[in-house]
């Protein structure tokens, strides 16, 4: 049940925004083996003057920050796969890998309230330890 926030420095069409959100979600499904319907993805477009990015980017307008809150328990290999898959999928949309920053926040399951219970006390329907 990852919760995703994608932040960009430009205005996009609705179709471009949807493609970006779909690409990140597809990478999460593939790398972390979550059900495809388990989707909470938000996108926020900032005016460039309100979102400073690292210097030296060839196309600073394409800088993309992805923050993902997820249950603790994913292996380093799953995280590597996630980073590479996000970079590949966003590359298909014209975003260079060196313009992408992914930040994962591993949160213990007992710190997620799901269906009125701690997530550690319910069957999620998928394996977290991948």
Q: Span from first to last CA?
A: 14 Å
Mean pLDDT: 95
Instruction: Note the total helix count.
Output: 2
Shape: elongated
Q: Residue share in helices?
A: 25-40%
Total beta strands: 6
- Helix and strand sequence: EHEEHEEE
- What is the alpha-carbon Rg in Å? 15 Å
Order of strands across the widest beta sheet?
A: 2-1-3-4
Structural class: alpha/beta
Q: Describe the main β-sheet briefly.
A: 4 strands, mixed
User: What amount of the residues lies in strands?
Assistant: 15-25%
Low-confidence stretches: none
Structure, explained:
With 130 residues, the chain is of the alpha/beta class. It has helices at residues 14-32, 76-91, and strands spanning 3-8, 41-45, 64-71, 100-107, 113-114, 117-118. It has a four-stranded mixed beta sheet, with helices on one face. It has a two-stranded antiparallel ribbon with strand order 5-6. Helix 1 packs antiparallel against helix 2 (76-91). A hairpin with a 2-residue loop joins strand 5 (113-114) and strand 6.
How are the SSEs ordered, and which strands pair?
Elements (H helix, E strand, L loop, with lengths): L2 E6 L5 H19 L8 E5 L18 E8 L4 H16 L8 E8 L5 E2 L2 E2 L12
Parallel strand pairs: 1-2, 3-4
Antiparallel strand pairs: 1-3, 5-6
Helix pairs in contact: 1-2
């Amino acid at each position: 049940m990852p919760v995703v926030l994608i932040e960009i420095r430009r205005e996009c069409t609705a179709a471009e925004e949807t493609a970006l959100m779909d690409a990140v979600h597809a990478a999460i499904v593939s790398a972390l083996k979550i059900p495809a319907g388990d989707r909470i993805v938000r996108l926020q477009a900032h005016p460039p003057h309100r979102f400073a990015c690292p210097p030296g980017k060839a196309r600073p307008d394409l800088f993309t920050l992805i923050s993902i809150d997820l249950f603790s328990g994913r292996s380093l290999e799953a995280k590597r796969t996630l980073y590479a898959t996000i970079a590949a999928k966003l590359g298909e949309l014209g975003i260079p890998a060196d313009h992408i920053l992914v930040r994962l926040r591993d949160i213990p399951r007992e710190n997620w309230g799901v269906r009125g219970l701690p997530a550690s006390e319910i069957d999620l329907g998928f394996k977290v330890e991948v």
